[in-house]
Amino acid sequence: MDLSSPVVRSEDIYRTYWLYWRLLGVGGEHLILQVLDILITIFVTFWYPIHLIVGLFYETTLGDVCKGLPITAACFFASFKFVCFRWKLEEIRSIEGLLLELDQRALTEEERAFFDRNTQREANFVWKSFIVAYGLSNAAAIATVLFGKGHKLLYPAWFPYDVQASEQIYWLSVSYQIAGVSLQILQNLANDSYPPITFCVVAGHVRLLSMRLNRMGYKRELPKETVVRELVDNIEDHRKLMKIVQLLRSTMHLSQLGQFISSGINISMTLVNILFFADNNFARTYYGVYFMAMLLELFPCCYYGTLISVELNRLTDSIFSSNWVGMDRGYCRTLLIFMQLTLAKVEIRAGGMIGISLNAFFATIRMAYSFFTLAMSLRK
Questions:
Q1: Is the pTM of this model over 0.85?
Q2: Which of 19, 49, 104, 251 could form a disulfide bond with 75, CB atoms 3.0-4.6 angstroms apart?
Q3: Per the record, what is one GO cellular component (predicted)?
């Protein structure tokens, strides 16, 4: 049968994700890529957040500390998440392998059309949004240096020499900070785009499974053996989805905990900087863009985390909606056991404590708003 909708290919969604890793030199077999990986690991992943953290201790005013804290926290947790995800790359590849197997099960026009018009389109929109938000945030930060007053570093930091000793040394230091933060943003694109696009793809495959379950038994011309085979195949699909959820729990256990801590610090401190310490239009623009980037960093992951739970909860109704009337007792018993399995609540937790859902997102926003109102009262 000629299907007008394209074949479901989850790997197409991950092409840009794996490009981030290759640009960072990870997994390359060539000597140049291996050297690049070592240099980025030393001078960006580890040294960049260290030079920002040490720089905070040399600041003499509260304003400078508050200005440096958001980017210091962001860079520290970017490196933390990057190390966590790099440690779990084999599990990430295993998840993608299971998704490719589930892709092969989408055989009807309805399933392929849904995946193409919803899942794939939304996943592509998410990773493109991250590129735009992070790119604008970086451009706004660079603009504060290029168009600001005096010879100021991009961010408060410590160097083992006098940054203001000469024009060349100053611009060399600024160039390192610009290059370093750009590479940290590239690392963060790998860190932050993976959870939402993977949650989106998993939620899409749960919906496709729900479609297949709904259709079971309604083609009267099919023999009962074929219907039983469909049920077994669908149970196997559910097993693969639960295996993916199990791998996601392991992959995101520490990285997403760091994400929530980082977002809480950055959202709160960015509001303080906008209120008290943004002394020019470029600074206000930078903090405003940075604030929106922090929200974007957190919201898609929480939204699609909730969507996975919602879609999985619908499976029980889909199983009951299939045509089981007239089937033998063994089939109905298997169907009933399968329904019982789908009743279990499925949730992915960061650090085993914080559910990756919209509840966690709104809790973070409420915390930031409370901090904002406290800051406003102090300002008066």
A1: yes
A2: 49
A3: plasma membrane
